[in-house]
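Severity: low
Component: inverse-folding endpoint
Summary: output formatting inconsistent between runs
Steps to reproduce: submit the following structure tokens with default settings.
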């Protein structure tokens, strides 16, 4: 099947069969399903590179999964996947490839036979050349005793991925410099970060593909002003650009730049030069292991049959939960402090990718797409929103993440942490039926569980690649472009119009609510 001619999932006979299957068991009970099938855990769990997944507590059975796999084949998922790796313009609205897997393909010894293809070889060489230059620079920064702090200035994908990964891999930093992140246009964040820094010991990474991003450039100019006002010298030594706009960066005073390509989407960019902050934090060897873990998951996604393909099976589960069972959100609960920023990272990855209302042909969708993704690390979340998960009126699937090995020596912590994750998953399923009223827990609340043996650069790379491909799978079946983000552009354009209005008080042509708020706010900006 040509990937361009793929049918949308709801337009196939397989979809009708799937909905009939679900309608035949409207009161599916996971507890009863376990009682009927002693092999349920084995059927609905699987290992993959660096991790293990269990979704046996979800409201699904082997028959439903088999029908989902038939639906995936009818929708040309495998052809679409192959087009992604071949560099076809799967980002159809922008006419671009989405070749982020190429960013982690090794120089030799690819785990995917025949890939990168000869057609991709020149581009792969350019990727490797940029990687080598970036890693050499990262090692030079790590070896420089005069550079004690690095500030990454970016937003969206230029912040979320590197920030999350640096925090997750803090145990791998060694003697490298401290790494800070500034993203928000709110100047409080930048001011608080700069307050503890010395200009002569600070390196700024300005991350903006076009060097025009409002938030990033505003923060970068303020950082440069601070640097000079504090007696800093040699802007070219203390500011680096991760951008394709070399001339704009040079006009800013930046001479050292690392570029990337238009097919590198922001939420898929941590594998590129956008990951320079991470490379500085964990070193070249650690960054190569990060890429290697992702490549191992790429190989699994490319080569495993759908029945044993973890990104495919989880992506289909996501579609089942969203469209067949009608669950509008998913809670992500990482039981590891290092993964505290993972829910925020996944919000962008999934909601920006699949938060679409029209298909590839511009037709309105008849099915909901991306769920709302949210969460907080355990055990903190247990004392915040787990009440709603257990006894609220909405059924919300929970995705638990746990790491088997701790990297601290504190006695009594880790076993308790993991026991809490297991207990919450069990409590959501079994409930408490022998108590009435306020003490009654209905149970039968779905959850899944992702388990890493250790949180390492390699396992984190594999985990993030798993999520990338999982998002691709559900987007593919919905027939949408998971690689554009036109929805973020309108607000940017309106902000450009409203900024001078705040300064002037001009409300001509505005709606009454915006005009009324500007009337209240304008006096605060009279001297700006």
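Observed output (run 2 of 3):
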């Amino acid at each position: 099947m040509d990937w361009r001619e793929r049918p949308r999932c709801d337009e196939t006979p397989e979809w009708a069969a799937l909905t009939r299957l679900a309608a035949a068991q409207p009161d599916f009970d996971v507890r009863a399903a376990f009682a009927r099938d002693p092999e349920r855990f084995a059927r609905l769990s699987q290992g993959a590179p660096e991790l293990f997944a269990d979704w046996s507590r979800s409201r699904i059975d082997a028959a439903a999964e088999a029908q989902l796999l038939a639906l995936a084949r009818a929708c040309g998922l495998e052809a679409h996947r192959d087009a992604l790796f071949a560099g076809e313009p799967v980002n159809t609205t922008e006419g671009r490839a989405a070749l982020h897997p190429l960013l982690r393909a090794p120089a030799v010894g690819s785990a995917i036979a025949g890939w990168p293809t000869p057609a991709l070889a020149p581009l792969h060489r350019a990727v490797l050349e940029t990687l080598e230059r970036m890693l050499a620079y990262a090692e030079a920064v790590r070896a420089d005793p005069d550079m004690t702090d690095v500030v990454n200035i970016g937003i969206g994908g230029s912040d979320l991925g590197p920030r999350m990964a640096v925090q997750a891999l803090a145990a791998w930093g060694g003697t490298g410099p401290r790494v800070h992140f500034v993203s928000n246009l709110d100047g409080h964040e930048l001011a608080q970060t700069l307050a503890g820094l010395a200009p002569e010991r600070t390196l700024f990474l300005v991350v903006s593909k076009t060097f025009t991003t409002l938030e990033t450039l505003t923060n970068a100019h303020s950082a440069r002003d601070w640097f000079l006002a504090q007696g800093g010298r040699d802007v070219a030594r203390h500011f680096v650009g991760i951008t394709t706009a070399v001339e704009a960066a040079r006009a800013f005073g930046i001479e050292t730049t690392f570029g990337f390509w238009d097919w590198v989407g922001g939420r898929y960019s941590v594998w590129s030069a956008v990951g320079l902050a991470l490379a500085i934090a964990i070193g070249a060897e650690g960054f190569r292991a990060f890429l290697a873990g992702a490549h191992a998951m790429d190989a699994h996604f490319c080569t495993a049959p759908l029945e044993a393909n973890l990104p495919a099976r989880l992506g289909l589960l996501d579609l089942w939960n969203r469209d067949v069972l009608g669950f509008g959100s998913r809670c992500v609960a990482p039981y590891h402090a290092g993964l505290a920023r993972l829910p925020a990272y996944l919000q962008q990855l999934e909601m920006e990718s699949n938060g679409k209302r029209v298909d590839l042909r511009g037709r309105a969708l008849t099915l909901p797409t991306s769920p709302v993704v949210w969460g907080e690390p355990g055990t903190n979340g247990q004392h915040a929103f787990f009440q709603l998960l257990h006894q609220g009126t909405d059924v919300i699937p929970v995705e638990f993440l746990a790491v088997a090995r701790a990297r601290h020596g504190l006695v009594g912590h880790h076993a308790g942490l993991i026991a809490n994750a297991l207990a919450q998953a069990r409590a959501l399923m079994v409930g408490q039926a022998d108590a009435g009223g306020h003490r009654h827990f209905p149970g039968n609340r779905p959850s899944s569980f992702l388990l890493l043996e250790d949180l390492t650069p390699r396992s984190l790379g594999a985990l993030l690649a798993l999520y990338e491909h999982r998002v691709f799978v559900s987007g593919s079946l919905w027939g949408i472009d998971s690689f554009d983000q036109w929805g973020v552009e309108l607000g940017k354009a309106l902000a450009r119009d409203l900024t001078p209005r705040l300064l002037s008080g001009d409300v001509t042509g505005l709606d009454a609510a915006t005009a009324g708020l500007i009337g209240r706010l304008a006096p605060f900006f009279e001297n700006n």
